[in-house]
Amino acid sequence: MVALLLYAYTQGLYASRRIARACEERLDVIAVTGMQRPDFRTISDFRKRHLAALAALFVQVLRLCRAAGLVKLGHVALDGTKIQANAAKHKAMSSGRMQRTETALAAEVAHWLAQAEAADAAAAAEHGPENRGDELPEWVKDKQARLERIRAAKAALEAEAKAAPPAPDAEPGPSSGMVDHGRPARAPHGGPRARAQRNFTDPDSRVMKTRDGFVQGYNGQLAVDSAHQIITAQRLTTNGSDQAGLVPLLDATTAALGRPPRAVSADAGFCREANLEALAAHGVRGYLVPGRGRHGSVDPSGQRQLKPGSRMAAMAAKLKRAGRRSRYRLRKQTVEPVIGQIKHARGFRQFLLRGFTKVKAEWALICTAHNLTKLVAARTA
After folding, report:
1. Burial of 285 by CB count in 10 Å (0-12 exposed, 13-18 middle, 19+ buried)?
2. Is the peptide bond before 172 cis (omega within 30 degrees of 0)?
3. Which residue, 1, 133, 192, 378, is most buried by CB atoms nearer than 10 A?
4. Do 256 and 247 form a contact (C-beta atoms < 8 A)?
5. Can you give the pLDDT at residue 149?
6. Integer CA distances (angstroms), 129 to 116, 126, 136, 192, 307, in order
7. Vertex 27, ends 21 and 28: CA angle to 5°?
8. Residues 158-179: pLDDT tens digits?
9. How many CB atoms lie within 10 A of CB 336?
10. What does DSSP assign to residue 192?
11. HEC string of 209-224?
């Protein structure tokens, strides 16, 4: 089953029904299973039951790649990509809309309940007391269930507003709209702001901005070795910003491979003073662009006002001095193709599971499949 799942993920097969169908129709998959045909429920249950163990395979496969000479740790590039959750944006509701909808639905349900009681009384008088007529109509049940879900989501937002702010590295982190520029955002009365949102399908997912608009999803972050595009570290977060990802990715790479890379490059999303200090403390050469210039060029004077004498100002001067010869150029040809291979070549654009813990393990499995693909390609070359 482990071999089947890993091979299916390398072939862009993620849904259990598609994997089960491939066990009957595709010769390559039949060769992996030895002509066995597991049911899709068996595949799905196995994956859910062993998610933690499957996620732990990432480090084992990474060390196999290092043993094969595919990881050099000369230059590692970082990036993050937003991936849609198994939930839709229209299944989220803001706190303000919850307030309005709860009032309207409560009045509507009360009106229908009164009508239902009157209809039950009329039916009992007409058909006799022994005939059943006390069940609520389906159209009343649906509205009542929706009202209960809205009240539960509203209570969750109100409890979050009253609780102490979570630690910066806590996951799944604050709900959408509960934090503004790293600071807790509350309404004047102390509760959630009207724009705070909570999704009914996957409450752990967050609304995130992408270049194509907003998605309900997660932020998958990667560290990729430039030698053979092997993923050396992976991380999943509900924070749309990449700033807090550099140190965890660097630490994960060091823990898995025994030493940090000699150089790290990353885009403006990872660049902040604390991250540059962390790179210096690890003895790693950094190539992090402090801002984006016009037409996407590496012009550090583009959009940020840099404090004179700061590490970010020094980094901007360093990249500007090197120009197109800067090693920052390696980032685009190292980590972005890996994201393209995952999302376009293998078609992974939406998580199948729900909840932060499960989605985090699913992301690790996706990254493991990528490294396996690179390992097999190197072995057969």
Report:
1. middle
2. yes
3. 192
4. no
5. 76
6. 16, 9, 17, 49, 82
7. 95
8. 777 777 776 666 677 777 766 7
9. 16
10. B
11. EECCEEEEEEEEEEEE
Judging by beta carbons within 10 Å of its beta carbon (0-12, 13-18, 19+), is residue 85 exposed, middle or buried? Answer: buried
How distant, in Å, are the alpha carbons of 16, 49, 196, 354 from that of 42? Answer: 9, 10, 39, 19
CA distance linking residue 135 with residue 126, whole number of Å: 17
Angle at 108 between CA 104 and CA 112, to 5 degrees: 170
Torsional sign, CA 73, 77, 78, 79: negative
Please give the CATH number for the structural domain made up of 52-87+212-380.
Answer: 3.30.420.10
Judge contact between 203 and 174, C-beta under 8 A: no
Which region holds residue 233: left if phi is over 0, alpha if psi is between -120 and 50, else beta?
Answer: beta
CA distance 82 to 141: 36
User: What whole-number distance in Å separates Cα of residue 332 and Cα of residue 296?
Assistant: 12
Does 260 have pLDDT greater than 90? yes
Of the listed ranges 284-288, 306-310, 371-375, the least confidently predicted one is: 306-310
- In which element (H, E) is residue 286 found? strand 285-288
Q: Which residues contact 249 (CB under 8 A, 6 or more apart)?
A: 78, 221, 222, 223, 233, 234, 235
Whole-angstrom Cα distance, residue 9 to residue 225? 21
Token pair 């009157």 in the structure block, residue: 118
Tens-place pLDDT, residues 305-355: 788 889 999 999 999 898 878 889 899 999 999 999 999 999 999 999 999
The domain ranges of the chain are 1-49, 52-87+212-380, 90-200
CB-based contact 257:232 (threshold 8 Å) = yes
Q: How far is CA 126 from CA 120, 129, 131, 133, 264, in A?
A: 10, 9, 10, 11, 80
Picking from 14-23, 24-33, 208-217, which range would have the lowest pLDDT averaged per residue? 208-217
Query: Is residue 144 scored above 60 in pLDDT?
Result: yes
* pTM for this entry: 0.79
